[in-house]
């Protein structure tokens, strides 16, 4: 006897085949964010070489530098969600608020670095018999380049340029991934 497949059987089979996990995730916002992160970290090799004229592979894993990988990541996430789901979605609102942390991150890291410098100086001035005098110094470079004394008044500090460059990179990657 011949079996007859109905339309509901065929659509159920199609739904079950489509719900099987794929090797490559199809979450475009997540892929955009991760690609932006990887690309920004990879580009740090070249920007640090341009600045110092030497290759430093540790820059690929470290924080700070040009372009900001944190900014690239959150902007790629926000832009791709905005393109995919629209600016009125709750997901876009959450991603946009998260992206606004970029502004605060430059200032927080700057001040934390200044505090580390001051604490390191205090520890160095302690007598050798003091229990704290032999601890490892704190890292005083915590991310993006702080504002430096310059002869010309610039609109943005170097740290802010690093953040803006990362944000632009994230926007471009998100746009290319969603189109």
UniProtKB/TrEMBL annotation:
Keywords, comma-separated and alphabetical: Membrane, Transmembrane, Transmembrane helix
Name of the protein this chain belongs to: Acid phosphatase/vanadium-dependent haloperoxidase-related protein
Transmembrane segments: 28-50, 154-177
Domain of life: Eukaryota
InterPro entries, per database record: DUF212
Organism: Punica granatum
